[in-house]
Amino acid sequence: MEETDREAVATAVQRVAGMLQRPDQLDKVEQYRRREARKKASVEARLKAAIQSQLDGVRTGLSQLHNALNDVKDIQQSLIDVNKDWRQSINTIENLKDVKDAVVQHSQLAAAVENLKNIFSVPEIVREAQDLIERGELLQAHRKLMDLECSRDNLMYEQYRMDSKNTHDMNLIHTYFGNMQKLSEELAKQLWMVVQRSLVTVRRDPTLLVSVVRIIEREEKIDRRMLDRKKQTGFMPPGRPKKWKEKMFNVLERTVSTRIEGTQADTRESDKMWLVRHLEIIRKYVLDDLLVAKTLLDQCFPPHYDIFKKLLSMYHQALSIRMQELAAEDLEANEIVSLLTWVLNTYTSTEMMGNSELSPEVDVNCLNLLISQSVVDQLLSKYMSTLTSNIIGWLRKALETDKKDWVKETEPEADQDGYYQTTLPAIVFQMFEQNLQVAAQISEDLKTKVLLLCLQQMNSFLTRYKDEAQLYKEEHLKNRQYPQCYVQYMIAIINNCQTFKESIISLKRKYLKIEMEDTLSSSHTNMDAILDIIAKEGCSSLLDEVFMDLEPHLNELMTKKWLMGSNAVGTICVTVEDYFNDFAKIKKPYKKTMTIEAHRRVVVEYIRAIMLKRISFKNAEERKEGAERMIKEAEQFRFLFKKLAVGSGEDTEGLCGIIEAIAEVIKLTDPSLLYLEVSTLVSKYPDIRDDHIAALLTVRGDASRDMKQTIIETLDQGPSQPNPNYMPIFKEITVPTLTVPKLLK
User: Fold this and answer.
1) What percent of the chain is predicted at pLDDT more than 90?
2) Cα separation of 107 and 326, whole Å?
3) 414: which strand partners?
4) Which pLDDT score is estimated for 92?
5) How many CB atoms lie within 10 A of CB 502?
6) Rounded to whole angstroms, how far apart are CA atoms 453 and 389?
7) What is the reported pTM?
8) Given 179, 309, 327, 365, which residue has the most CB atoms within 10 angstroms?
9) Which GO terms describe its biological process (predicted)?
10) Rounded to whole angstroms, how far apart are CA atoms 606 and 608?
């Protein structure tokens, strides 16, 4: 207490010190005293109230404990009295055993009397119940069956209670009610027939279906009651539990399986579209059945049956089994596509499980795959293998068909722009398109794989196409009169190359994702290269055709006949222009390439004619006449190829300028300036060799052997400054060695 007093005084001193920190606060001392007195009185009042409340609680508790003690004493005394009475009544209970047996016997006799009417009328009740079943009055028939079963079960139960080991009497009762078991089976048969046709019955006579469900529910209740009694007494009547609810679902499950299996109306032998038809019938039947189950059937069953979800599960399971059976068959490629499209897409689409009328009960996101992913992968692998073989066969057949067109006596068809073409590119890419569209129905991944396969096979196909075009050319060279339309079909082959290029780009743009383009860049480049080779070889073969016709006229160049006024160049120009009327049917850029190459080859052949030294001018007059003729003919060539190259941007000046430069060397009248003129020629065209210069000087006819050697040796020592834009042309021209002077060191 002293310690508490000291703490209280110290606390009070602190509070007073806190209140009186300034002189002006001394005036409020009386006010502070009254406030503290009020606080003290308030605290004391609360403290007294709390103590009083505690004291009241303790007083009440003590009173209750005292009452409880008295109650315990009273109970103890009562138990003593009960124990005493029980000990006194043991002998009395033993004396009542005979009464107990009499009660049991009375109970059995009462049950027998109660069921006596049913016992004597069992055959009649069975006949009535059978009549009711035949008339379709199943509820009334089941009521009579229940009465018979109740009588039998009560009798057997009483017999069991009296003597559970007396099997003879039990069998006697069971035999007497034997027809009742047949009646039960007959009724069950009728119930299962209704259940099997439940989706039809619910639309025509829903009352009948409701009656069946009520009968099943009654039996379920009896089963539960008998099971409970078995737990208590150990007795179970024969034929129980019937489990008709479980059997009903088994019947429904078998019905669903049979319905799915029974939709196959055709076989592959009778109808190539058997699988498509089969799957479509399944889709229609399943959707119709589920819609009926949701809108009508669900109302005929108790909610706890959850009939729609159970039917949905049954259909899904039956479909899964059927799809696995189909997947295990030896399916063709188109059948694999039909199956996978149906399983992966159609099944969950709005045409089937995704139908708005089935939601929200059916969530397609929660449905498992009808066939496992491993089976899907196996089917896809088989499809890709079959498709590979098919594409190879289709491409081979398309090429063979196209080759037959090459030897026709009629010109190939032209497109809307007038360019010759064959049907090969259209056939090939139509086939690719069809397969890609089919693959896209299954998955994006398969679409990409099919595209890669198509382009891969296209690569191999183009190599065969190139070989066949080369054979076509070689066969024509054996007999240039056959095929009759060789030029036109070779033009079509060249144009096909451009069509193939455009179609490949279009196919990739339409079906290939941007991020996948890099993986195909090398393959695309390779195909472009092969197509360019085919087109280049085709153009070359057409030019070979031209120059074979020009050969007699080219042989006239730089001869005496030519100098005397031959019209060989005029014929050459007319022939080239005539061919190029057909070549106008060649697509860009191959037409431009063709024109440039024709221009180059004409100039090369002209210069080769000069280098063959068919003529050697005798005097300045002949040299002048020959040179002017060369310049005139160069201008003819320039005019021709300028006309042919309209719109192509080709340079028609440079090549013809070579002929004019050579003509200037031949035309030169002062031999002392010959070295200067030749050096100018060499500086312009640095690929001119010594034998070219020697041949040119030989054609002039006025250069001695020493002069030729001096000019050549001097030119060999001079610096060479080739024009970077110059395309070598003299390296293709060979000078006959038998007539070349021995000037090379």
Assistant:
1) 22
2) 65
3) 420
4) 67
5) 13
6) 11
7) 0.66
8) 327
9) exocyst localization; exocytosis; protein transport
10) 5
